[in-house]
Amino acid sequence: MSGVARDQDVDIDLGQLVRAVWARRLRILAVTLAGAGIAFAGAKIMSPQYRSETRILIEPRAPAFASTQQVNDAGAGPLMDELNIASQVQLLQSADLLKKVINDLKLYNLPEFDDAANGSAMSSIMVKLHLKKNPMENPPEERVIDAFVERLQVYQVPGSRVIGISFTSKDPKLAAAIPNAMANVYLSTQSGAKLDSNSEATRWLEPEIDGLRRKVSEAEKKVAEYRTSHGLLQTNGTTTFPAQQLNDISAELTRVRGDKANAEARAQAVRNALSSGEASDTLPDIMSSQAIQRLKATESGLQSQISDLQTSLLNNHPRLKSLRAQLADIRTQIRQETQKILTSIENESKVADLRASELERQSDTVQANSARAGEDEVGLNALEREATAQRQLLETYLVRYREAASRADSNSSPADARIVSKAIEPVDPYFPKVVPIVVVAAVATLILSAIVTMLAELFSGRALRPVDAAPETIETETLVEERVAPQAAPVVAAVRKPIQPSMLAIVGDEDETDAIEDTEAAEELPEDDNEFSVASVAEYLTGSRAPLAIAISPTGDNGSAATVLLTRMLADAGRRVILIDMTGSGHPTELMAEDQAVPGVTDLLCGEAAFGDTIHSDRLSDAHLIPQGQSDVRRAMRGVDRLSLLLDALAAAYDLVVVECGSADVAGVSRLTRSRDVEIILSLPEIEETIFMTLMTEFQAAGYERVVLMSGGEGAEQTLGQAA
Fold this sequence. Notes:
The protein is of the alpha/beta class. The chain is 57% helix and 9% strand. Strand 3 and strand 4 form a beta hairpin.
């Protein structure tokens, strides 16, 4: 056999994978068409489902007559919050809203929403076996709601304040009517909630406003009584009488003190002028005196006359003396008048001083009264604050009451949402989409079939090739570990377990003898063009790529020798092949094994040897051999049914497993394999029509359709002996 050793690198033969898929193309195409047909039939059997959707925009809404301030306040509310939108989604799925829609549309009368009432036979059986809860135990209303919720989908459109309501139904009209009905019920519920809130507000505010009015009246009355009793009368609405009086006295006292200071300054100026002899006609008080002005005018006239006469008269002239006397008299009068003015100014200063003293006394009295009034104002302020608070609260309640009363009508309280897209009756069903389902099923089936075919090639080892093209001998343990498919590992482990004494008996009757008599020597080998020759059968097995071949040799060792020759031909052709010696004589073991005492199949079935220890190389070819073994045949054959596990494991590691059964019947062969997908080879050195037809009929009656005749084995043993 051209194998792969443990230490040898291998590659995946992609060409072999493609050839394997192409060789099974008709089978893959048939499976694909079958899958597409099943999908098409299933899609056609399914009831069509229609889906329609309504979309609602959550936004603040106010009546047209609402004030700008109210609109701004509403817009600043929590309606923009993501949590609020999520809350509205849950509200749309609330049981009360769903019940309202169900009752409005009378959905409880539709069989679609109460499948439990018309349950299937399978559902009834599962209920009786307590594998499923009886849906009829639930109330009808709950069953309808459950069916309704299964078809309903409410979601928030990502990145927006839009909520989508979609519904799936067998009736396209119903699929459109239900989302629209839910949207209308939701809007009316929201609007009704606002109306209820306004109505509740007016009902609550009316008695509160009446009570506040009484409280405000009582508070204002207390304020007025307190003012009267404590003399805290207001003068200009904000200041009390004592405070106003004190302010007036303070202002007057300041003015009088100013007048006094002014008078004293004027008097001092006049004194200074009189004491220094300087001209006093520059002082305001002197200049404002009419008498002084007249005397000044007379003085000026006299001086003019004196000046004129001095030019014509002598100084001692009586006229000049008279004029000088008059001038001195005028000046004396001016001084006297100035002294009077000084006395007048000093009198003004004294009067101002007396006025200031009086005002100071009055101020002290008023201050004492004002201090007492301040203490009384503490209580007054408390009463005024209470009255003001009650008045402001009353005004606030009145504003709220007027707003709530103005929104008592349904048109004045729109819901904070509006429908932006209504559901329309769908034309095409939402499910099933026949064409996509069929295409996807066909493609999936095609891909899976190709994958399964490739995996079978890989697990069997037919798609693996050594990197080095030179043939090498594979050791027993290497073959088991590297070529057995992963799924065959449990099988191999099972074969390794010891066979218990309670296993099935030998293939034939236990009372019959196990010895198989030797047949006569085979004659010559047939020509290569014989269609039943060993070479022809080898070519047939190579083309069929059968995993298992059961060789029956009715004539004994001659037929077994032909089977050995067939195995070696297959190994020389590059096939990985193993022969299992199930004959009574052990003739194939004599022809192939280096040592006749090596462990074999009987030792494995008796539990006296491990699986890997029973596989040996053919001494003249690349084929492998599991010899007869040294244990008792009858005891080993009690576990022959376990041999099918061994064959499955070997089929995963080799291209072909050949079982030489010697002279066996159909019953014995049937116990070797669980499948009828095997090649039955009747190894007859000479074609004996009676034996061949009898065996052919028996095997075909048992379900083995591929029965191959191999003749021309006469001399095969001699040929094998010469080769040895």
